[in-house]
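TL;DR need structure tokens for one chain.
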Amino acid sequence: MSIFNNADIHPFLMDSKSYKLEIKNSQKGTYIKMIMLTDFFHTNSLPSTHEVLEENLPGVLLTKCFNDSGLPFDSEVKNTEIGHLFEHIILEFLCQKKIQSGSKKASFRGVTNWNWREDQRGTYHIEIDVKPADIIYFQYALEESVKLLNKILPN
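>> reply
TL;DR here they are.
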């Protein structure tokens, strides 16, 4: 059972010349399959990433990040997978929209996985824990995340 009709997601958001997104929603959360169409898959190939985030979404640099190196996201963002970056951007926009809508606090959780032995290189599986009551914020978060990611990626 879907928490909202996947047809409600605007088709123009699904594809760009740099990546494709496939999005599915369920009672358990939102699942995004991101397939990079570039020959790079990490932010170390995108040196302006940190600067673009500081200018457009500085709060994302303060988000909690659980990574193998134990780095804060402010540092991790300089050399992380693009799918992981996209996860953090969505989470930040979800929190912002929930707070703007009158909530006193907002917290969302996400996980990004990849296995390039099984999937095409550059394929990420992003799980966002969006409760049914909070799904109303997802379309906004997705739209804003796509806009910001497109500012970071080369044209």
